[in-house]
């Protein structure tokens, strides 16, 4: 059985849980407590010297880090990763977008608001994070107008990757009411077979 080391409240870790539940793939989950230095222990650093979750550990001991790389590995030869060469490239395009233009703003704003004291100096970052996060949301909104999913006509790991932090963007202070296409897409996501919520 494969093993995931992750945090229940992390969107990057939630991506993997959502895909595995939708695939019906058995897995073992090991919760890592970042607050207690869980990613800095010698045991964890031996698995991932970068000291971050999530990581995937295969039965033969091989270890894979980076959430979107793990999504690609788990989705190979499944309906969640298209066979068509162009559509696969489109999936990768959205995975890169998520990590470079979406997650650094929406996820970080959520982290600051949920996990740092109101007086923490990092709260000063929020106006810029909200501005850049809304820019990313606007890109998704425009793309989804008239479409059901991000790539082709099917739910894929592109959708899973961007759903993870978009559906909890309000926790970072983002008002999603101005994004009707995104809200319709979020509703379709919740209706997918095998759906589980974050933190469950």
What order do the helices and strands come in, and which of them pair?
Layout: E1 2-6, H1 11-23, E2 27-31, H2 42-47, E3 55-57, E4 63-65, H3 67-75, H4 85-115, H5 126-144, H6 157-166, H7 180-190
Parallel strand pairs: 1-2
Antiparallel strand pairs: 1-3, 3-4
Helix pairs in contact: 1-3, 1-6, 4-5, 4-6, 5-7
Give an overview in words:
This protein is of the alpha+beta class and 200 residues long. Helices cover 50% and strands 8% of the residues. It has helices spanning 11-23, 42-47, 67-75, 85-115, 126-144, 157-166, 180-190; strands spanning 2-6, 27-31, 55-57, 63-65.
Q: Report the biggest beta sheet as strand number plus sense, adding barrel if it closes.
A: 4 strands, mixed
CATH top level of the largest domain?
A: Mainly Alpha
Q: Which stretches of 5+ consecutive residues score pLDDT under 50? A: none
Radius of gyration: 17 Å
CATH architecture of the largest domain: Up-down Bundle
Helix content: 40-55%
Widest β-sheet, arrangement of strands:
2-1-3-4
CATH topology of the largest domain: Glutathione S-transferase Yfyf (Class Pi), Chain A, domain 2
Helix/strand order, N-terminal first: EHEHEEHHHHH
**Structure summary, number of beta strands:** 4
Q: Give the distance, in angstroms, between the N- and C-terminal Cα atoms.
A: 20 Å
Mean pLDDT: 97
Number of helices: 7
Number of domains: 2
């Amino acid at each position: 059985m494969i093993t995931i080391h992750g945090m229940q409240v992390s969107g990057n870790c939630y991506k993997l849980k959502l895909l595995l539940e939708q695939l019906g793939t058995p897995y073992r989950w090991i919760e890592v407590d970042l607050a207690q230095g869980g990613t800095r222990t010698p045991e964890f650093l031996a698995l991932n010297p970068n000291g971050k979750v999530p990581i995937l550990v295969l039965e033969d001991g091989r270890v894979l880090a980076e959430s979107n790389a793990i999504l690609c590995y788990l989705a190979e030869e499944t309906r969640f990763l298209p066979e068509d060469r162009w559509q696969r490239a489109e999936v990768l395009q959205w995975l890169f977008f998520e990590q470079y233009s979406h997650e650094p703003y929406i996820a970080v704003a959520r982290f600051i608001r949920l996990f740092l004291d109101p007086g923490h100096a990092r709260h000063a970052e929020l106006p810029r994070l909200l501005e850049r996060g809304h820019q990313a949301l606007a890109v998704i909104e425009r793309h989804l107008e008239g479409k059901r999913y991000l790539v082709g006509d099917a739910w894929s790991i592109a959708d899973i990757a961007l759903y993870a932090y978009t559906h909890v963007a309000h926790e970072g202070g983002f008002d999603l009411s101005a994004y009707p296409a995104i809200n319709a897409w979020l509703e379709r996501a919740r209706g997918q077979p095998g759906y589980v919520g974050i933190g469950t």
